[in-house]
Amino acid sequence: MALALGFAHYGGGALLWGAPQAVAKDAAAANDVWFEHGRPRAETLAFLALLKEADEHGLDPADYRPAEIARALAAPVSDQARASALLSEALAAYARDLKVPRGADEVFYVDAELRPVAPDPADLVAAGSLTANLLALHAQNLPYENLRAGLKLYRESWGRLPAVTIPEGPALAAGSKGERVSLLRERLGLPGEGEQARIFDAALGEQVRRFRADHGLGDRPVADSATIAALNRGARHYERIILADLDRLRSLPSGGERYVLVDTASAELRLIEAGREAATMRAVVGRQGMETPQLAGFIRYAVVNPYWNVPPDLVRNSVAPAVLREGHEAIARRRFVLSPDWRTDTRVDPKAVDWPAVAAGRESIWVRQLPGGSNMMGKVKFMLPNDLGIYLHDTPNKSLFRRDDRQLSSGCVRVEDADRLAGWLLRRE
After folding, report:
1. pLDDT digits over 373-422, tens only?
2. Domains in the chain, ordered, with CATH?
3. Is 57 a catalytic residue?
4. Can you tell me whether residue 259 is helix, strand or coil?
5. Each residue of 319-375: pLDDT tens digit?
């Protein structure tokens, strides 16, 4: 079972990221790939059309030089070698950009087989239809397909509206009048005429509500300071965010039948199966400064009634100060036990620890919390063994899931319904 963490809301580039892979062994063979009887193959023209539409994936068509390729294709037969070279380079770059995105360097791949690998262009042209093989590369994962559709919708809606700067001022709502309302109407594509252009009416309120909802600002029909700031950033600002997210989503392993996806921006966990979203639940993810990393790996096993191994920084910044405030009884009260290290069950008496030195970071002690109802791990934790110490787990503090701001953890992911997640992972739901 694959897991992807940290992919969230938060294109273009050089033509080649390295030496282009050979599409054919020599120029004559390359010509056979792209030309037939001295004319471009239908597959060649279809590939050129795909290059021109690369922006649908957040890629810059200019990176693949489609205009230069088109001119070379229209040139005399004697220039076909140049056209073949351009097409072969474009194929290598396009296939690589689709499958090995720039964001891949930001991802910690726990399991090497999940790391994106650039397709061999020779394989793309050797078996079946080149167009079909490229379209298969387009199919990434469900969140990617959803966001790609969202990019198209954004460009056709908010992205088409004029860039208008609205001065700061009081919130605008039903009944507001004046020049700022007129600018707001123009910015949202409802300019109006005469005096009506200066009035905040029901139609403008609905457009404001839609803009706010689509930009994560709530859904009240009020143009407050946050709404005005978002409008003044312009559509290109938000399109760049979508493009960056598409690149991050290309970093996800593709083709998995069943996987768990944690979106840290919305603090939600999604269960994906057979290309559809089987379920969604809330999650608690890393707070600012301790963000949940972008990580992909296989969920290998679960631990029922787990210990909680308290991270060293929490021992220093939380446990030690609690002992200094409350006395040594703070350890037993929290069901903590102390050890000299993780490799031994030897217990250390809290009275034998220099707690001021621990609080100052001069000494260390290993602290773990015993299993039970108050254990921070809850009833179960789901493990994908990794050097970052990141995993998913239950929690006894269910009230956190009622909050909108759930970026609260030290990096691990707390799940709203651990029983449901366990059942789905074990196919017993």
Report:
1. 888 899 999 999 998 889 999 999 999 999 988 999 989 999 999 999 99
2. 21-142 (no CATH), 164-233 (1.10.101.10), 257-305+376-425 (2.40.440.10), 308-369 (no CATH)
3. no
4. strand
5. 999 999 999 999 999 999 999 887 777 899 999 999 999 999 999 999 999 998 888
The CA distance from 289 to 360, in Å, is: 20
Q: For 112, left (φ over 0), alpha (ψ -120 to 50), or beta?
A: alpha
Helix or strand (DSSP H, E) at 302: strand 301-304
Look up residue 133 and give its two tokens: 């093989």
The sign of the dihedral angle between the CA atoms of 46, 51, 55, 59 is positive
Residue 9 among the catalytic residues: no
Catalytic residue among 9, 57, 237, 393: 393
417: β partners: none
Task: Identify the CA nearest to 222 among candidates 166, 183, 184, 266.
Answer: 184
Residue 372 burial (CB count, 10 A): 10
Catalytic residue among 138, 215, 328, 412: 412
